[in-house]
Amino acid sequence: MMAVPSSRTPLVAMVGGGQLARMTHQAAIALGQNLRVLANAADEPAALVTPNVVIGSHTDLDDLRRVAAGAAALTFDHEHVPAELLEKLVAEGVNVLPPPQALIHAQDKLVMRRRLEALGAPVPRYAAIESLDELDDFAARIDAALVVKAARGGYDGRGVRMASDLAHAREVVGDYLAGGVPVLVEERVPLRRELSALVARSPFGQGAAWPVVETVQRDGICVQVIAPAPELSADKAAAAQRLALRLAAELGVVGVLAVELFETPDGALLVNELAMRPHNSGHWTMDGSRTSQFEQHLRAVLDYPLGDTDAIAPVTVMANVLGAAEQPAMSVDERLHHLFARMPDARVHLYAKAERPGRKVGHINFVGDDLTKLRERAELAAHWLSCGQWSDGWEVHG
């Protein structure tokens, strides 16, 4: 006899009230749900749109219990929840997804590097550093430029320092160690470009992979994503997808997993970072894929069959809108008005965040078949929304 689905829609709770939770809530609405979020404040992006908000801290066990109460699954807008608190929730019967033993690989770069190395995944040469002598030994051994990373807590380039020389590396490491921050030092990999392989996995073990994308970085922040990555062979793209799906299975991930990759000049792929949540490199899927990463994440944590990840057009370009060095006098609303007047094909997603220099306040997608044209339009549009100026000299009232 076939089981009759419950008429009660399952509730998903998400720790964090940022833009990822906001966009996950948008996907939840289409599935007949609302997303409960744990936000630090009532004016955070997700708290402004979902009616189901718990105000509290991700480092407070009672607040985590409140947001998880009655939820079919507890998942994440960010990865900063202490593992020991998540383990207590699991012991109390909360369905934490991804589970703490998986999430730790996105929280701790040293744990991640060691596990990936044990699984035979390609990674840069690295070392855990507890003294300046260990740094000197590693530098002598690899004879390459160095990257110094805080093992925990970094994102969007924070906690990552490119050392100009060994003396600079010693200075950065010394500062981290003096502050009690565990340190990871890696070789600076010669780069052709950075790629991202985005996949999803359900508790049932079903996996799905989107096209591999190229991520364009500036000052440690992603400014543009090109889907699919141009001039990436079908064999190499498939290999990256297989690697990401294998890591999702080996690590026990449930939900979306982003595997950020370095492509070297000789074509090798090395794993740089992991993210176990919807990811900036997947924002293009909102307009360029049959299933967005946000809907897929919900499907995965609820153990629904996963959605089709095919692209709906030959190319999608996503551009992040970053806060300008000086906030424009023109309001966001007026900037949006002029953008749509010039570019009615722009697909705009704003986060309702205060504009601060370098802060991600939104993104824009362009979908089509001409990569060069789409990249130019994406760059123009993002600059306009950031600064209120057309970088090509377009006259707003001309």
Automatic annotation (TrEMBL):
The keyword rRNA processing belongs to this UniProt entry's keyword annotation: no
Record key words, sorted: ATP-binding, Ligase, Nucleotide-binding, Purine biosynthesis
Binding site for ATP: K109, K149, E186, E187, R188, V189, E194, N272, E273
Pathway listed: Purine metabolism; IMP biosynthesis via de novo pathway; 5-amino-1-(5-phospho-D-ribosyl)imidazole-4-carboxylate from 5-amino-1-(5-phospho-D-ribosyl)imidazole (N5-CAIR route): step 1/2
Ligase found in the keyword field: yes
Domain ATP-grasp, first and last residues per copy: 113-302
EC number: 6.3.4.18
Reaction(s) catalysed by this chain's protein: 5-amino-1-(5-phospho-beta-D-ribosyl)imidazole + hydrogencarbonate + ATP = 5-carboxyamino-1-(5-phospho-D-ribosyl)imidazole + ADP + phosphate + 2 H(+)
GO molecular function: 5-(carboxyamino)imidazole ribonucleotide synthase activity; ATP binding; metal ion binding; phosphoribosylaminoimidazole carboxylase activity
A Pfam family reported for this protein in Swiss-Prot or TrEMBL: ATP-grasp
Gene Ontology cellular component annotations, sorted alphabetically: cytosol
Source domain of life: Bacteria
GO biological process: 'de novo' IMP biosynthetic process
PROSITE patterns the record matches: ATP_GRASP
Protein role: Catalyzes the ATP-dependent conversion of 5-aminoimidazole ribonucleotide (AIR) and HCO(3)- to N5-carboxyaminoimidazole ribonucleotide (N5-CAIR). Catalyzes the ATP-dependent conversion of 5-aminoimidazole ribonucleotide (AIR) and HCO(3)(-) to N5-carboxyaminoimidazole ribonucleotide (N5-CAIR).
HAMAP family the UniProt entry points to: PurK
Self-association state and partner proteins as the record states: Homodimer.
Family: Belongs to the PurK/PurT family.
UniProt protein name: N5-carboxyaminoimidazole ribonucleotide synthase
Gene that produces this protein: purK
